Amino acid sequence: MRQLEHEVDICVVGGGIAGLCAAVSAARHGAHVALVNDRPVLGGNASSEIRMWICGAHGENMRETGLIEELNLANNYRNPQSNFSIWDSVLYELARFQSNLDLYLNTSVNGVEMEANRITAVRGWQGTAETWHTIRAQIFLDCSGDSVLAPLTGAEYRIGREARIEFGEDIEPEVADRKTMGMSCLIQCRETDHPVHYTPPTWANKYLSEDDFPHRNLHYTAYANFWWMELGGEEDSIHDTEELRDRLLKVAFGVWDHIKNHGDYGADNWELDWVGFLPGKRESRRYLGAHILTQNDVRAEGRFDDLVAYGGWSMDDHNPAGFLWRGAPAIYHPAPSPYGIPYRCLYSRNIENLMFAGRNISVTHAALSSTRVMATCGICGQAVGTAAAIAVKNHLMPQGVYEERLEELQQTLMDDDCFLPWHARRIPELSANATLTASEGDPEPLRNGLDRPTRESPDAPWKTNNWSCVPGGFVQYTFSQPTKLSLARVVFDSDLNRKSASDVRFDKILEKNCLCNYALHREPRHTPETLVRAFHFEALVDGTWRDCARVDKNFQRLVKVPLDLTTTAIRLVPDTTWGAARCNVFAFDVQ
User: Fold this and answer.
1) Nearest CA to 136 among 181, 163, 102?
2) Fewest Cβ atoms nearer than 10 Å: which of 172, 303, 421, 480?
């Protein structure tokens, strides 16, 4: 068996959506990163092994951007049929071909080296290569969901529900316990053009009546994913996983047997296409950070000075008994959208160089019931990855970023198209001081630092914050003297409220990264019509306008185009969209 040693700046443990966003963001900001994942594919609960769709903040114009939007738009472009293997490849591509990032798949971390309260190395076993990897780093990010570094390092953590009195959370039980939300093995079915017979395994559970499913939705459209087939909240959500998987499979095959053979659900032409053998988890260990986000923080909108991410999913608290509970499987306690998540929830309060993102951040059980959804986990991952890179660059620990580099962290995140509620992106000095004109309309919203529609309050009208033109129009910066340009940053309109209808028989819903089930006649995924497809830049050089950069097949919202020229004026010219009559632009900066 081989034993290899590696030295990097940052080691990210866990390759779910949070870990992937953390690793990529740190690498893009110049750190040498190792991403260690114990599975063969990335994405965690969103991967082909579990197949939960990515959910996030509720409400108009609240879609998460940054790396989450980059992934979703790449998936729309490359994966029209919502094939899970293609989705896996979109996630793999983002990590595998990112410079400064070393990817270790099929590698399970099970040991650490420590110096006092600081981690110096992690050790992982890569079974496919029969290799032990020891990875030394300055900062470690645990995005594993189960917080695998917590018991190895002595980092403080919690499991279960707090007593109502501890934080004054009225949705919590009177007495604290170790109960959690459970885990699920999902199923997917596919519609055919002919009747399909189903024979369940002999060991599947038998459900002969709809009375076996109180308050459960037995629909199998593209928008019903059997999330309520859930167990484990009353057991140990880590150490009992194998036994719980066996029980969940009995439930899963039994539920489909009921739909096909013991009721009239119009499922004659539907077949069972896939069953998950890896449970998707909702809750286990939660780290304790410099701040613990509570139910009351969420309801007060989380207007923290160190806000670096946001949530907006309801406090969606599942009963610990899961499928065995005869009442409603979940209670949806209201939460504002958005509410802020502070940086202090993303680093350990007793291990100096340990950070985290995902469903293991420093929150109470009540707050976790909202923060656990994957789009929220992803933007928290991008925040900790960016913070870790800033820490490495400035020879700081995570606490030092809070004390010395907080504004830099927030501005960097917004520059990378991460929305921070109640904050505005700082416009580069070169753009702020130049003269801004356009072929039509008022271009000033392009430099207000608000790169999406916003409003002052829930009852106020939306401000569009964009500039719009017909294809072939232009927006122009003019400088007082010849100026050297190295980069153009543009934010296009990807329609943050876009919807999809994967089954033409049903109304459209907010677009997700994947399908729950596959109808025979369904719309393919497509790039949002509002996005600018082709655009170019023109520079005024020696009194003549010249093309200086061109993009012909854009499918992203945030685009950063390298430049290398000296000019007295530069124009952005949107040439075509993916279908919309007008070209919408939220930001155009040069530096």
Assistant:
1) 102
2) 480
What does the pLDDT average to over 539-553? 96
Residues 575 and 480 in one domain: yes
**pLDDT at res. 500:** 84
Burial class (CB in 10 A: 0-12, 13-18, 19+), 253: buried
Give one DSSP letter per residue of 212-224, joined into a string: GSTT-----STT-
Domain containing 100 — which CATH number? 3.50.50.60
Q: Which two tokens stand for residue 481?
A: 């003297």
Report if residue 246 sits inside a domain.
Answer: no
The C-alpha angle 455, 64, 536, rounded to 5 degrees, equals 90
SS3 labels along 460-510? CCCECCCEEECCCCCEEEEEEEEEEEEEEEEEECCCCCCEECCCCCCCCEE
Residue among 84, 37, 190 nearest 513 (CA): 84
- The verdict on 440 and 567 lying in the same domain is yes
| Largest Cα span, the chain | 82
Q: Closest Cα partner for 322 from 283, 373, 265?
A: 283
Write out pLDDT tens, residues 484-498. Answer: 999 999 999 999 999
Cα distance between residue 21 and residue 386, in whole Å? 9
Mean pLDDT of the chain: 97
pLDDT (tens digit per residue) in 239-268: 999 999 999 999 999 999 999 999 999 999
Domain check: are 444 and 582 in the same one? yes
pLDDT at 504 over 70: no
pTM of the model: 0.98
Q: Residue 139 corresponds to which tokens in the numbers above?
A: 């900062």
580 and 450 housed in the same domain? yes
Do residues 525 and 79 touch, judged by C-beta distance below 8 A? yes
Domain boundary among 415, 448, 477: 415
For residue 398, give its domain range.
Answer: 2-159+332-415
Q: Is the alpha carbon torsion for 249, 251, 257, 260 positive or negative?
A: negative
Q: Are 368 and 462 within one domain?
A: no
* Together in a domain, 441 and 582: yes
Q: Are 43 and 16 in contact (CB under 8 A)?
A: yes
CATH code for the domain in which residue 575 is found: 2.60.120.260
The bridge status of strand 139-142 relative to strand 10-13 is: parallel
Each residue's pLDDT tens digit, 349-380: 999 999 999 999 999 999 999 999 999 999 99
Residue 547 is given by DSSP the state E
pLDDT tens per residue across span 131-176: 999 999 999 999 999 999 999 999 999 999 999 999 999 999 999 9
How far apart CA 160 and CA 175 sit, in angstroms, is 11
Closest CA to 207 of 247, 257, 275: 257
547 and 405 within one domain: no
Please state, in angstroms and rounded to a whole number, the distance separating the CA atoms of residues 62 and 462. 12
